[in-house]
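Hi D.,

Good news: the full-assembly prediction came through. Inputs first.
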Amino acid sequence: MTDRTLRGAIAVLALAGAAVAAYLVYARYTGTRLACTTGGCETVQHSKYAKAAGIPVAVLGLTAYVAVFATTFSARVEGAAIGAAIVLAGLAFGVYLIVIQVAVIDAICQWCLASDGILALLAIAAAERLRRVAAKP
Amino acid sequence: MRSVKHLLGSRAALFAAVGIVAVGIAAALIVVSVVGSSDKKKAGATPIPATTAAATPGTTAPGSTTAPAPGFKVSGGAATAKLFGGIPQTKNVLGNPKAPVTMIEFADLQCPFCRDYALNALPTIVRDYVRPGKVKLVFAGIAFIGPDSETALRATYAAGLQNRLWNFLDLLYRNQGAENSGWVTDPLLRAAAQAIPGVDVGTLLSARRTTEVDNALLATQQQASSARVSSTPSFFAGPTGGTLNRINLTSLGPSAFRPTLDALLK
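Then the structure:
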């Protein structure tokens, strides 16, 4: 797999994540009811854990996905490193939010889980990209 | 321009740097999230002392003439969380939305009989009918006893906007004071909201005067009028989506509800 292919995969995954986050941001600011099969999306989105430093987590997620997408335009090691750092941080924060959903809020948001799944795939791709780029002389 | 890799000297150092930055960002986000969710005193909010066990109104008997002192914790948070844990809630509805039977309760949060039902019969109904997905419960709050009724009701419906109406309702019943004694204070409502995991207390309190809560109160009042509800608690049950009929009760114990619910489930 070439670096170009990896960057393409990361770009597609980042766009998918951005779409999920954008939907959550849209629903939050327009008051639209979320499509939800788990029954807990609204509960999670209205919980006190849905914000960090006053900023909705969905907005943070959207920003992060856009930033990761932007790094795919760079073939340099810096781009790969910044992308990997953002993705790994997002994945760690996502795991924390899953624990909060299960152990504290007692409700599961399927859109959050979808985002976490995308982040997990992104983490694999971003780590592999960094490994390949760093191996170049 | 020299690359980051060259600056760091090796691949291992590069990976370590990325890992450290990632952990740092994640840790910062988690700290901010935990601190932000701890419901510390907000500007303009009524303060609540951390330890005020002596003033806990959980043991306040219905009929007591004293309103709880401002600044206290509510009792029953753990029991309430256990009672409703894992059961879906959507606004004023508790249970599986597709449950075959619907039971609606018209209640006033100051009504001691409503409290008796909530504490004595509801846990059994939840265990035997709601948790298995057979029956869904609808709360219809009306305010006819006095000013405290509407104050409590508004906060309860505001909790419903976060899908935690039933937890909030149960906590208010567990901490119910004497009718129209002024027991429904902001400290009580704040403490009740704080006792529910995940609830955004500030949002709940500020939502009490929203159009959404106004509309919910109005709709319930109209529903009560058309159903000719003249006392609380009043119960109606029937097939979901069909006609609900009044349940004529001889007591407010759990066994009083079984014949009606079992017959509807046959």
